[in-house]
Structure prediction request, 460 residues.
Amino acid sequence: MQIYNQLKRRKEEFKPIKPGQVKLYACGPTVYSYFHIGNARAFVTFDVLRRYLEFRGYKVDYVQNITDIDDKIIAQSIDEGIPFSEIAAKYSRAFVEDSTALGIKTPTHQPKATDVIEDIIAAIAAQIEKGYAYEAQGDVYFDTSALPEYGTLSGKKVEDQMAGARVEENLRKRNPADFTLWKASKPGEPVWPSPWGEGRPGWHTECVVMSRKYLGETFDIHGGGIDLIFPHHENELAQALALSGKPLANYWMHNGFLNIDGEKMSKSLKNFFTARDILKEYSAEAIRFFFLSKHYRSPIDFSREIIEESERAVANFYSALKCVDYKGITAIPDDSCNQHKEAFIQAMDDDLNTAKALAVLFELAHQAKNTQLPQPQREQAALLLVQLGQVLGFFQDLASKLCDSLPNLSRQLIELLVHYRDQARANKDWALSDRIRDDLAALGIELKDTPEGCAWNLKE
Prediction:
């Protein structure tokens, strides 16, 4: 398996530290609001990575943090007039609910920053003792000049970060690029006691402490959005090197932005849609398909038209399963569709190329719907369609999706009429083709012509 490693700026063969096991950390939400679908892209990406690694036989220890103390949480608590802990609890619950609605598997561990305050204080104290951090009027800063490796992940050089330019000038810092490990208390803010006075941890320290606590000094893969490369992940890596001299992770993976009209979707630009709102309009599978139809490192443009196309694509999968009467299949999977399975694995092994993997699912759906093929071959295609689709997070509620009140004989008659229409279209008998379509529409049966064949469904 090849993974693009941001640390090396190239694809590399994935070799886990311990054979058969993968330790994976992906940055979770800062819980001050409902997460938007730009955030959801990262959550879905690393859910799929986890599922694929498990499909390949690895035991995956997956950690996703929840940042429940941060400037934005404090600001939201002031806006809503309730304690920060209630804001964090409210949106932590919402995050879990919306993640579940998107079909995202529960991580192995999901620690909260406020659960590891003592560990954070100990890590900061160790960095001061080793000469990598210093205290200034109750704040504690990381001394970037003390670490020659600083900037290796992002490619940014310390000397390029001039005071008053990219970094906000702070006269208490020794260097403009130095970042905060511990923030001194301010009136009305939540605080914890520490050797440097009351205060609270910095964001970058929270993550490095939580990942090391659950996965060890060095683990296999660290993931997150491309916007986290600098400063967040750079500053995590710096602290890990300061604490142990070892890299925090061997592979660093980052997904691309989700854009609106060519601009990154973000709360600060006020051009975002929450996952919760989008899930009211479209299925979770359509949203997943939308994300997976592009390579995870590429930017992707949001539009309702594209998600509606994704909805139709997913409907085509279910149409194929219904066409072959998936619920009635009694055969067990065999090797007759092995070339499709190998093509799927080859795509996913190429830096998680889900777009190519989806093309394999379309081929299987086409085979399952092809009435010219022997029934056993169609059934094997359907079985593999579900197996590989589940690796991407589809078909999680398969039984209920396939359950409807349409009798099997009626279904067979519809399939027969669709088949006759396909023949009419092949013969360029457009009048007969249109008549069959219109007659079925009058009976509440909607047809959709796709490159993979004709899909049908009952109108709601």
The chain is about 45% helix and 15% strand. The domain at 2-264 is CATH 3.40.50.620 (Rossmann fold). Residues 1 and 418 are 42 Å apart (CA to CA). Residues 162-167 have pLDDT under 50 and may be disordered.
